[in-house]
Write a structure and sequence with these properties.
10-stranded parallel beta sheet, 10 helices
Protein backbone atom coordinates (compact mmCIF):
# COMPACT_ATOMS: atom_id res chain seq x y z
CA UNK A 1 0.00 0.00 0.00
CA UNK A 2 1.28 3.47 -0.93
CA UNK A 3 2.49 5.59 1.96
CA UNK A 4 0.35 8.56 2.90
CA UNK A 5 1.90 11.81 1.72
CA UNK A 6 1.99 14.85 3.99
CA UNK A 7 2.11 18.31 2.45
CA UNK A 8 4.21 20.93 4.19
CA UNK A 9 3.53 24.66 4.26
CA UNK A 10 5.56 27.57 5.66
CA UNK A 11 4.44 31.04 6.75
CA UNK A 12 6.25 34.34 6.34
CA UNK A 13 4.97 37.27 8.38
CA UNK A 14 5.98 40.05 5.98
CA UNK A 15 4.23 42.90 7.84
CA UNK A 16 3.83 42.31 11.56
CA UNK A 17 1.88 43.59 14.52
CA UNK A 18 0.30 46.72 13.05
CA UNK A 19 -3.38 45.75 13.02
CA UNK A 20 -6.01 48.11 14.45
CA UNK A 21 -8.81 45.54 14.62
CA UNK A 22 -9.93 44.11 17.98
CA UNK A 23 -9.83 40.34 17.30
CA UNK A 24 -9.45 38.92 20.80
CA UNK A 25 -7.39 35.95 19.64
CA UNK A 26 -4.70 37.91 17.82
CA UNK A 27 -1.42 39.23 19.18
CA UNK A 28 -0.98 41.33 16.03
CA UNK A 29 -3.65 43.77 17.25
CA UNK A 30 -2.05 46.94 18.59
CA UNK A 31 -4.89 47.17 21.13
CA UNK A 32 -3.51 44.41 23.36
CA UNK A 33 0.18 45.40 23.45
CA UNK A 34 1.38 41.81 23.17
CA UNK A 35 5.13 41.33 23.43
CA UNK A 36 5.82 40.51 19.78
CA UNK A 37 8.12 41.76 17.06
CA UNK A 38 6.46 44.54 15.05
CA UNK A 39 7.66 45.82 11.69
CA UNK A 40 6.37 47.09 8.36
CA UNK A 41 7.21 45.77 4.91
CA UNK A 42 10.00 43.24 5.29
CA UNK A 43 12.77 43.54 2.72
CA UNK A 44 11.81 41.59 -0.39
CA UNK A 45 15.30 40.11 -0.80
CA UNK A 46 14.96 38.68 2.71
CA UNK A 47 11.52 37.27 1.87
CA UNK A 48 13.03 35.49 -1.15
CA UNK A 49 15.87 34.06 0.94
CA UNK A 50 13.39 32.80 3.52
CA UNK A 51 11.35 31.22 0.72
CA UNK A 52 14.46 29.33 -0.42
CA UNK A 53 15.01 28.08 3.13
CA UNK A 54 11.37 26.95 3.41
CA UNK A 55 11.66 25.09 0.10
CA UNK A 56 14.86 23.40 1.30
CA UNK A 57 12.90 22.11 4.31
CA UNK A 58 10.32 20.52 2.04
CA UNK A 59 7.64 23.21 2.02
CA UNK A 60 5.40 23.23 -1.04
CA UNK A 61 3.15 26.03 0.18
CA UNK A 62 4.54 29.43 1.11
CA UNK A 63 2.21 31.97 2.65
CA UNK A 64 2.85 35.74 2.60
CA UNK A 65 1.00 37.23 5.56
CA UNK A 66 0.37 40.90 6.35
CA UNK A 67 -1.16 42.28 9.53
CA UNK A 68 -4.23 44.47 9.18
CA UNK A 69 -7.90 44.18 8.33
CA UNK A 70 -7.39 44.01 4.61
CA UNK A 71 -5.62 45.12 1.48
CA UNK A 72 -4.94 48.65 0.24
CA UNK A 73 -3.04 49.81 -2.84
CA UNK A 74 0.36 49.88 -1.13
CA UNK A 75 -0.07 46.44 0.39
CA UNK A 76 -1.31 44.87 -2.84
CA UNK A 77 1.70 46.24 -4.70
CA UNK A 78 4.11 44.98 -2.02
CA UNK A 79 2.67 41.45 -1.96
CA UNK A 80 2.64 41.33 -5.77
CA UNK A 81 6.30 42.42 -5.98
CA UNK A 82 7.29 39.88 -3.33
CA UNK A 83 5.47 37.12 -5.21
CA UNK A 84 7.15 38.01 -8.51
CA UNK A 85 10.57 38.02 -6.85
CA UNK A 86 9.98 34.59 -5.30
CA UNK A 87 8.67 33.07 -8.53
CA UNK A 88 11.75 34.34 -10.35
CA UNK A 89 14.17 32.58 -7.99
CA UNK A 90 12.33 29.64 -6.41
CA UNK A 91 10.67 26.87 -8.39
CA UNK A 92 7.86 24.65 -7.22
CA UNK A 93 6.31 26.77 -4.47
CA UNK A 94 2.57 27.27 -4.27
CA UNK A 95 2.41 30.95 -3.31
CA UNK A 96 -0.36 31.90 -0.92
CA UNK A 97 -1.36 35.42 0.11
CA UNK A 98 -3.01 36.05 3.47
CA UNK A 99 -3.82 39.74 3.65
CA UNK A 100 -7.28 40.06 5.14
CA UNK A 101 -10.44 41.20 3.39
CA UNK A 102 -9.95 41.76 -0.32
CA UNK A 103 -11.94 42.94 -3.32
CA UNK A 104 -12.26 41.12 -6.62
CA UNK A 105 -10.00 43.72 -8.26
CA UNK A 106 -7.26 43.31 -5.64
CA UNK A 107 -7.39 39.54 -5.83
CA UNK A 108 -7.26 39.58 -9.61
CA UNK A 109 -4.15 41.78 -9.43
CA UNK A 110 -2.45 39.33 -7.08
CA UNK A 111 -3.29 36.42 -9.36
CA UNK A 112 -1.85 38.28 -12.34
CA UNK A 113 1.40 38.78 -10.42
CA UNK A 114 2.11 35.19 -9.45
CA UNK A 115 -0.09 34.29 -6.48
CA UNK A 116 -1.61 30.82 -6.67
CA UNK A 117 -3.84 30.81 -3.59
CA UNK A 118 -5.43 33.16 -1.07
CA UNK A 119 -5.93 32.31 2.59
CA UNK A 120 -8.76 33.90 4.52
CA UNK A 121 -10.08 32.08 7.56
CA UNK A 122 -13.63 32.31 8.84
CA UNK A 123 -12.13 31.90 12.37
CA UNK A 124 -15.32 30.77 14.14
CA UNK A 125 -19.06 30.42 13.61
CA UNK A 126 -21.15 33.35 12.42
CA UNK A 127 -23.05 33.24 15.72
CA UNK A 128 -19.96 33.36 17.94
CA UNK A 129 -17.96 35.83 15.87
CA UNK A 130 -19.25 38.99 17.63
CA UNK A 131 -17.87 37.55 20.89
CA UNK A 132 -14.32 37.64 19.51
CA UNK A 133 -14.40 40.64 17.17
CA UNK A 134 -16.50 43.80 17.05
CA UNK A 135 -14.61 45.93 14.52
CA UNK A 136 -15.75 43.97 11.48
CA UNK A 137 -18.28 41.26 10.74
CA UNK A 138 -18.11 37.59 9.85
CA UNK A 139 -19.90 38.26 6.55
CA UNK A 140 -16.91 40.25 5.31
CA UNK A 141 -14.77 37.18 5.79
CA UNK A 142 -17.17 34.92 3.96
CA UNK A 143 -17.54 37.42 1.11
CA UNK A 144 -13.77 37.65 0.68
CA UNK A 145 -13.61 33.87 0.37
CA UNK A 146 -16.27 34.02 -2.35
CA UNK A 147 -14.25 36.75 -4.10
CA UNK A 148 -11.18 34.50 -4.05
CA UNK A 149 -13.02 31.75 -5.88
CA UNK A 150 -14.57 34.17 -8.38
CA UNK A 151 -11.16 35.26 -9.74
CA UNK A 152 -9.81 31.72 -10.03
CA UNK A 153 -7.38 31.70 -7.11
CA UNK A 154 -7.33 28.54 -5.03
CA UNK A 155 -9.11 29.18 -1.72
CA UNK A 156 -7.48 28.30 1.59
CA UNK A 157 -9.93 28.79 4.46
CA UNK A 158 -10.18 27.41 7.98
CA UNK A 159 -10.54 28.64 11.52
CA UNK A 160 -9.46 28.59 15.15
CA UNK A 161 -10.84 26.19 17.73
CA UNK A 162 -10.73 26.60 21.50
CA UNK A 163 -11.62 30.30 21.86
CA UNK A 164 -14.56 29.69 24.20
CA UNK A 165 -16.99 28.56 21.52
CA UNK A 166 -19.48 25.71 21.94
CA UNK A 167 -19.46 22.38 20.13
CA UNK A 168 -22.33 23.68 18.00
CA UNK A 169 -20.21 26.68 17.01
CA UNK A 170 -17.44 24.30 15.94
CA UNK A 171 -19.84 22.29 13.84
CA UNK A 172 -21.31 25.46 12.30
CA UNK A 173 -17.83 26.72 11.45
CA UNK A 174 -16.93 23.45 9.75
CA UNK A 175 -20.20 23.53 7.79
CA UNK A 176 -19.50 27.12 6.68
CA UNK A 177 -15.96 26.23 5.58
CA UNK A 178 -17.25 23.22 3.64
CA UNK A 179 -19.87 25.38 1.92
CA UNK A 180 -17.03 27.35 0.29
CA UNK A 181 -15.40 24.20 -1.16
CA UNK A 182 -11.85 25.36 -0.38
CA UNK A 183 -8.84 23.61 -1.87
CA UNK A 184 -7.17 23.61 1.54
CA UNK A 185 -8.27 24.23 5.12
CA UNK A 186 -5.98 25.13 8.03
CA UNK A 187 -7.26 24.06 11.44
CA UNK A 188 -5.74 26.19 14.21
CA UNK A 189 -6.03 25.59 17.94
CA UNK A 190 -6.03 28.64 20.15
CA UNK A 191 -2.65 29.56 21.63
CA UNK A 192 -3.25 31.70 24.76
CA UNK A 193 -1.16 34.79 25.35
CA UNK A 194 -1.28 36.75 28.63
CA UNK A 195 -1.91 40.00 26.73
CA UNK A 196 -5.06 38.72 25.02
CA UNK A 197 -8.64 38.94 26.36
CA UNK A 198 -9.25 35.22 25.75
CA UNK A 199 -7.24 33.81 28.62
CA UNK A 200 -7.58 30.06 28.20
CA UNK A 201 -8.05 27.39 25.53
CA UNK A 202 -11.25 25.35 25.87
CA UNK A 203 -10.35 22.41 23.66
CA UNK A 204 -8.64 19.15 24.62
CA UNK A 205 -6.76 16.64 22.51
CA UNK A 206 -9.70 14.29 21.96
CA UNK A 207 -11.91 17.20 20.89
CA UNK A 208 -9.25 18.44 18.47
CA UNK A 209 -9.03 14.98 16.92
CA UNK A 210 -12.81 14.97 16.49
CA UNK A 211 -12.67 18.40 14.77
CA UNK A 212 -10.14 17.02 12.28
CA UNK A 213 -12.25 13.91 11.69
CA UNK A 214 -15.40 15.96 11.04
CA UNK A 215 -13.54 18.36 8.77
CA UNK A 216 -12.20 15.52 6.65
CA UNK A 217 -15.65 14.00 6.28
CA UNK A 218 -17.19 17.34 5.25
CA UNK A 219 -14.42 18.49 2.92
CA UNK A 220 -13.84 15.24 1.07
CA UNK A 221 -10.80 13.03 0.72
CA UNK A 222 -9.12 14.97 -2.09
CA UNK A 223 -8.67 18.28 -0.26
CA UNK A 224 -5.72 19.45 1.81
CA UNK A 225 -6.54 19.47 5.51
CA UNK A 226 -3.81 21.20 7.46
CA UNK A 227 -3.09 21.29 11.17
CA UNK A 228 -1.53 24.68 11.84
CA UNK A 229 -1.27 26.99 14.86
CA UNK A 230 -1.42 25.33 18.27
CA UNK A 231 -0.35 21.95 16.94
CA UNK A 232 2.68 21.77 19.22
CA UNK A 233 0.58 22.51 22.31
CA UNK A 234 -2.07 19.85 21.71
CA UNK A 235 -0.39 17.12 19.69
CA UNK A 236 3.14 17.13 21.08
CA UNK A 237 4.27 13.52 20.80
CA UNK A 238 0.86 12.38 19.57
CA UNK A 239 0.95 13.71 16.02
CA UNK A 240 -0.11 10.33 14.68
CA UNK A 241 -3.61 11.09 15.96
CA UNK A 242 -4.07 14.10 13.70
CA UNK A 243 -2.98 12.17 10.61
CA UNK A 244 -5.10 9.16 11.51
CA UNK A 245 -8.09 11.52 11.88
CA UNK A 246 -7.60 12.82 8.34
CA UNK A 247 -5.01 15.61 8.29
CA UNK A 248 -2.65 15.41 5.32
CA UNK A 249 -0.83 18.74 5.65
CA UNK A 250 0.86 20.80 8.33
CA UNK A 251 2.73 24.04 8.87
CA UNK A 252 6.46 23.76 9.51
CA UNK A 253 8.66 26.32 11.18
CA UNK A 254 7.38 29.38 13.02
CA UNK A 255 3.89 30.84 12.89
CA UNK A 256 2.98 34.53 12.77
CA UNK A 257 4.04 35.49 16.28
CA UNK A 258 4.63 32.13 17.97
CA UNK A 259 7.50 29.68 17.64
CA UNK A 260 6.88 26.36 15.93
CA UNK A 261 8.83 23.14 15.92
CA UNK A 262 12.20 22.96 14.16
CA UNK A 263 11.62 21.66 10.60
CA UNK A 264 14.14 18.84 11.00
CA UNK A 265 12.22 17.58 14.04
CA UNK A 266 8.99 17.52 12.04
CA UNK A 267 10.67 15.67 9.18
CA UNK A 268 12.07 13.12 11.60
CA UNK A 269 8.64 12.75 13.19
CA UNK A 270 6.99 12.09 9.83
CA UNK A 271 9.66 9.54 8.90
CA UNK A 272 9.25 7.76 12.24
CA UNK A 273 5.47 7.57 11.69
CA UNK A 274 5.98 6.12 8.22
CA UNK A 275 4.76 9.07 6.15
CA UNK A 276 6.29 10.55 3.02
CA UNK A 277 6.78 14.27 2.55
CA UNK A 278 4.95 15.34 -0.61
CA UNK A 279 7.26 16.68 -3.31
CA UNK A 280 4.61 18.07 -5.63
CA UNK A 281 1.37 20.01 -5.20
CA UNK A 282 -0.28 17.55 -7.58
CA UNK A 283 -2.03 15.05 -5.33
CA UNK A 284 -1.76 11.52 -6.63
Amino acid sequence: MKQKQIFLCAINNILSGTCKEDCKFCTQSVRYHADIERYTYKDIAKIVEEAKIAKSHGALGYCLVTAGKGLDDKKVDFVARAAQAIKKEVDGLNLIACNGTASIEQLRYLKEHGLDSYNHNLETSERYYPEICQTHGWEERYNTCENVKSVGLALCSGGIFGMGESEQDRNDLLDAIASLHPESSPLNFYHPNPALPIKARNIELDEAVEVIRKARKLLGEEKLLMVAGGRELLFNGKEHLMFEAGANAMVIGNYLTTTGSEPFKDKNMLQTLGYEIATSCEKS
